[in-house]
Amino acid sequence: MPDEGSDFRKNFSFNNSVFEFSKPVLDAAVTQILTEKPDLLLITGKLTCRGEKISHEAIAATLKGISEHRIKVFVIPGALDINNSPGESL
Fold it and tell me: Which residues 6+ apart lie within 8 Å of 88 measured at CB?
């Protein structure tokens, strides 16, 4: 995920976010999923950073990689994954 700058990081630390750990945690989860090779993967929300397009694109690429290993991927977006206006807070 790209570096969004110090203001971005400050906003997330103010909101008690663990955003900086998202990528390593996701990578570890993907490794475990690909090792265990379940028939399907169900993800229920909290997929993106404020529903931003770049976050959707990043998670879509990750999930596509999982599905290419013949694992069916089902996603239920969370409230903050959809219809977010730039002015809304977490």
Answer: 50
Whether 51 and 80 have beta carbons less than 8 Å apart is answered as yes
Number of CB atoms found within 10 A of residue 38's CB? 12
56 within 8 A of 23, measured Cβ to Cβ: no
Q: Which of 2, 59, 65, 1 is nearest to 31 (CA)?
A: 65
Per-residue pLDDT at 51: 83
- Provide the strand spans (E) within 4-71: 40-44
d(CA 14, CA 89): 11
Give the per-residue pLDDT at 18. 61
Give the model confidence (pLDDT) of 6-63 as tens digits. 665 565 554 545 666 788 989 999 999 999 999 999 999 888 877 888 888 999 999 9
